[in-house]
């Protein structure tokens, strides 16, 4: 490519898409593109998409529709769809929205240079195979760009669990784990560029089983202990976990590894054993509760976060009340809750659906309870001192914003620290989604 072209990339969905988008930007840069924040300036627009619920997919099609006029004005504008919608719908996307030039699934991002050549020659391209080569051998962070002080690092991708409602095993494929040496190299590179906190990502991150430095299979707990040795890396987190892979060594690490932060996202989805069985979760509500107790024994102050689905086919009022009961017992500090959305190709999609009104009513009741718990957890911070990693300057003069050990956003006025500093902060006030504090001097 002789002249510079501009790339606009918009990311939907989970943190893995955020990580993938950063890597895609690096590939585009190596192929002569400059990132831009404005679709109007772009020569290439890429939507990195999500397919987890129907709403997520519909949003993408309406966004694509908005680019019709841009494409009319600029005949050489190329439009791409990446991510899980691309994987799930492939060529159908171009049939439904002919302005799309390229469709690329998450397992083929490393083939982007070849795909860009095809598209540059005026042809359309659909790349959604699961190739035999490992994409991570070609698709790793180069960290030439500034990525802030807290970063994501994908260590595991895909899922072999096949929960009956979930598209992930089909869009992200079978579980693969990256070798420890690759992860340490990427983490080291991040730390050299100023990163102080890394969140290890995987659809089933605690099922991590990469090749260790000694050539033997390494667990997530062992990987965390290896990363804890990296000088300059101060905080480690991981997400998302499945209860069945919450092993003893990982629970122990929460008690003993000072760099592993006291926050755990552990989805349960439902509190009813009947529904958990129909969801193919392979655990009961009691098993989940026992885990929570063990984790709290290891790290009493840990903040627990969860995912919930209400209105699963055949969920009765009694099943739903089991979920409310479990939530009351756990006391979540953070949560994500959704109405069940039938996804084509998943086993649960075959079954009857509940009335939308029932789903809405249950979601409302669950969210009221969860929101009370979140408020209580935030209020309990007032009067405490917590360590905060300062990530950026705030909107007000002299204000800085960071994250507590428990992943809460913290705003501090009259704060003249450098970005990347970790400092103790006394919490003076709490809102549902943020805390306010002052520097301990
Ligand atoms: N409908 C509603 N929520 C879903 N999730 C996954 N699949 C579906 C679905 N079909 C939720 C689960 C999961 C989170 C990422 O999204 O709670 O943990
Ligand atoms: Fe989906 Fe998570 Fe179940 Fe895997 S474990 S199928 S990603 S909900």
Please describe the topology of this protein:
Layout: E1 5-11, H1 15-30, E2 33-35, E3 44-49, H2 54-66, H3 68-73, E4 78-83, H4 84-89, H5 92-96, E5 102-104, H6 112-120, E6 125-127, E7 150-154, E8 156-157, H7 168-171, E9 176-177, H8 180-192, E10 197-201, E11 210-211, E12 217-218, H9 220-228, E13 235-239, H10 248-256, E14 263-265, H11 273-278, H12 285-298, E15 303-310, H13 317-330, E16 334-339, H14 356-379, E17 385-393, E18 400-404, E19 409-412, E20 422-430, E21 435-439
Parallel strand pairs: 1-2, 1-3, 3-4, 4-5, 5-6, 7-10, 10-13, 14-15, 15-16, 19-21
Antiparallel strand pairs: 8-9, 11-12, 17-18, 17-20, 18-19, 20-21
Helix pairs in contact: 9-10, 10-12, 13-14
Bound molecules: 5'-deoxyadenosine (5AD) and iron/sulfur cluster.
Task: Kindly describe this structure.
The protein has about 450 residues and is an alpha/beta fold. It contains 14 helices and 21 strands. A 6-stranded parallel sheet has the order 2-1-3-4-5-6, with helices on both faces. Strands 17-18-19-21-20 form a 5-stranded mixed beta barrel. Helix 9 runs parallel beside helix 10 and helix 10 packs parallel to helix 12. The longest helix is centred in the last third of the chain and has 24 residues. The protein is globular, with a radius of gyration of 22 Å. The model has no long low-confidence stretch (mean pLDDT about 95). It binds 5'-deoxyadenosine and iron/sulfur cluster.
């Amino acid at each position: 490519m002789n002249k510079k072209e501009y790339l606009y990339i918009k990311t939907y969905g989970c943190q893995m898409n955020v990580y993938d988008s950063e890597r895609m930007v690096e590939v585009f840069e190596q192929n002569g593109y400059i990132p831009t924040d404005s679709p109007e300036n772009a020569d290439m627009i890429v939507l990195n998409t999500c397919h987890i619920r129907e709403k997520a997919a519909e949003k993408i099609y309406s966004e694509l529709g908005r680019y019709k006029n841009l494409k009319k004005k600029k005949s050489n504008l190329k439009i791409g769809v990446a991510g899980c919608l691309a994987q799930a719908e492939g060529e159908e996307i171009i049939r439904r929205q002919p302005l799309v030039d390229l469709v690329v699934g998450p397992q083929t991002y490393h083939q982007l240079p070849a795909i860009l050549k095809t598209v540059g020659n005026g042809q359309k391209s659909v790349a959604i195979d699961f190739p035999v080569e490992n994409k991570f051998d070609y698709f790793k962070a180069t960290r030439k760009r500034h990525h802030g002080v807290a970063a994501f690092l994908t260590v595991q991708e895909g899922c072999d669990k096949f929960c009956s409602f979930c598209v992930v095993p089909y869009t992200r494929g079978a579980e693969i784990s990256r070798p420890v040496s690759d992860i340490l190299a990427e983490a080291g590179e991040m730390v050299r560029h100023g990163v102080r906190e890394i969140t290890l990502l995987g659809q089933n991150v605690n099922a991590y089983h990469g090749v260790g430095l000694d050539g033997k299979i390494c667990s997530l707990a062992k990987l965390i202990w290896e990363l804890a040795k990296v000088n300059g890396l101060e905080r480690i987190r991981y997400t998302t976990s499945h209860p069945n892979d919450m092993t003893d060594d990982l629970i122990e690490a929460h008690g003993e590894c000072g760099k592993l932060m006291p926050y755990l996202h552990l989805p349960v989805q439902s509190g009813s054993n009947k529904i958990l069985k129909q969801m193919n979760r392979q655990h009961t509500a009691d098993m989940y509760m026992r885990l929570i107790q063990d984790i709290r024994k290891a790290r009493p102050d840990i903040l627990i976060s969860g995912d919930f689905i209400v209105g699963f086919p055949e969920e009765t009022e009694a099943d739903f009340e089991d979920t409310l009961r479990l939530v009351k017992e756990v006391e979540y500090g953070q949560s994500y809750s959704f109405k069940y959305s039938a996804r084509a190709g998943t086993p649960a999609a075959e079954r009857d659906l509940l009335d939308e009104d029932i789903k809405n009513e249950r979601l409302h009741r669950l969210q009221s309870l969860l929101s009370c718990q979140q408020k209580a957890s935030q209020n309990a911070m007032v009067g405490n001192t917590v360590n905060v990693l300062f990530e950026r300057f705030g909107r007000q003069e002299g204000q800085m914003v960071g994250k507590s050990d428990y992943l809460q956003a913290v705003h501090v006025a009259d704060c003249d620290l450098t970005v990347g500093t970790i400092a103790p902060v006394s919490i003076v006030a709490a809102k549902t989604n943020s805390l306010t504090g002052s520097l301990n001097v």
